[in-house]
Amino acid sequence: MKIDLHTHTFCSKDSCNQYDRIISSVEQAGLDGIAVTDHNEFRGAVELRKRAPFLVIPAEEIKTSAGEIIGLFLEEWIPAGLEPLETVHRIHEQGGLAYVPHPFDEIRGSRLQRSALEEVRPQIDILEVFNARNALPVFNSRALAYAREHGLLGGAGSDAHTYAEYGRAYVDIPPFSGSEEFLDSMRKGTWRGRLSSPLVHMRTRFDRTLKVFGLAA
After folding, report:
1. What is the mean pLDDT of residues 38-61?
2. Is the alpha carbon torsion for 203, 127, 192, 8 positive or negative?
3. I need a labelling partner for 51 at 20 to 30 A (CA). Which of 7, 65, 142, 206 fits?
């Protein structure tokens, strides 16, 4: 199964992606599923899971007090602003998996701070070793080296905020059922990725501006 582990819908403040076009974009990309990881929002994941003919992993990209952590296989929304360890605890409490996105992208202020990464590392289930939106390849290579050094499972996601980005990065794993089998499949699978054009960041800023002024659909 080819699964993009990091994507967004219009429920994120910086994306205008609509459900129907997401579905067609995912199918055109040849993916078998996606994780919907909206910023501090959960309703988009729930709604798309109802509509999509493919697997949708309900998730959330949560802004902790020290940077972002993604919860995969969630049942409920988790509020922003909590300490990283508390956020990870709430993810695991739901039977979810703690996934740290873009940990070494030095341009993003939203990345998990290095001290927080070291603090939560024993509790991390997956570290994102390829994010297609990272500005420089070295940010991904540093994440991969860190995952190998500490024996962490490596994940990959497009971080799609626009339709053309779905499938730019994904994991290729055996079929699974539930979060525990997912981890087993991750150990047997691999990941693939290509960096997106830097122009996608301009589109994201444009979409954010549209939302600020109430001009987005």
Report:
1. 98
2. negative
3. 206
